[in-house]
Write the structure tokens for this entry.
Amino acid sequence: MSIIVIFAAVLMVVLLFIGTPVPIALGFAGMTGLYALVGDGALLVAAKVFFDTLNDFILLAIPLFILMGTVLAKGGVGEKLYKLFDVFLRGIPGGVGIATICTCAVLAAMCGTSVAIAAMVGSFAISNLLKYGYSFPLSMGICVAGGALGILIPPSVPMIVYSAFCQESAGQLFMAGVVPGVLAVLLFSLYIAWSYLRQPNRVKVESTTWNEKMIALKEGVWAALIPVGIMVPLYAGIATPTEIAALGVLWSFIVSVYIYRNITYKDIIPILKEGLNGTVMVTFIICGAMLFGNAVTQLGLGRAISEFFVGSGLSSWVFIIITMFIMLALGCFLEGASIMLIMIPVILPTLLGYQLNLIWYAVIMVINIEVGLLTPPVGLNLYAVDGVAKGLGFPSTISIVIRGTWPFMALYVLCLILVAVFPQLATWIPNNMLR
């Protein structure tokens, strides 16, 4: 049995490293393990796993949030938010950079992905940051780090995946990311203000007039109301994440079509097709990962790991630190949801064996994945922003992006340490949510 486990795990790693699509690598490794266990019955097991996965109500929120993100991008909602924050914050030291981070944070409270937010915000923020004297590396780092907030601040696609695997409340998991997300925004803002004051070519920025502020507020308030419509029902417990995602899609269409008028009726079908493409890709990954997880469970890998750590009396912190390094390595090559889908089936029995708070660990896991998304050689956010900058005509290289990003990565690690040492940062809001 141990030989089968090792072979399946090595096969998955090899397939991933040679560039095989994630769902195929996971599914093929899972099928190999299942075939060694049950022979031809592996096909029946795979069919049942796929059916049960696609029939899970909570996972329906994922395609809805993906569609919502597509509508927000096409509808110019991000630019309206950026203009709103820029007008109000421009006059303070580092205000333009802080406005970029705040825009990322609010967009994160709408669609729940990281790479898409980094690319979206980079497309309109990089030029403005350079205009006001921010160095090119710092401008790139702000967009890369701000985008990573997408999987921490609710709603979060990886948190939905975690909920489906661990049977924890998706609403509580969402709200657990609020305080750590705000903490990360504050740390980034302080660093940006300090770094901007050290920029030799910074431009003196005049405060905007109240008339400009009111115009930006009038335009941006409709976009700013979208995350409020997500947070309040979640905290009050009056709607499920799936219901909120559906309402978010509807409100996003209303704002983009009838208020901002950036989307016409003829754009709706292409937007739905683009959202469908993203949904199929993510769903394919989830199905492959669920199959891999089923094989891992039947092969007893999770149980064996639990017996090794818990049974030998090792501290839970040893296990947590080891898993952090593994997720950091995976973050160099994979998106956040994929990392969770690979890791959770393997480590869940050990988490239960140590009787760790699963909501607290989810936040630790997500922040750790965020660090991985910023880590070379293949941190996905790095390449997303690098590609956007090149598309805008800037002489970007991945080394420039890394140089601007590493201070933010250090701040993410600081945030991770604070949440690990003070679990109340993650658990206070979920423990006090209205039922």
Notes: The two ends are 45 Å apart (CA to CA). The CA atoms of residues 26 and 288 lie 5 Å apart. Residues 2-431 form one domain. The mean pLDDT is 83.
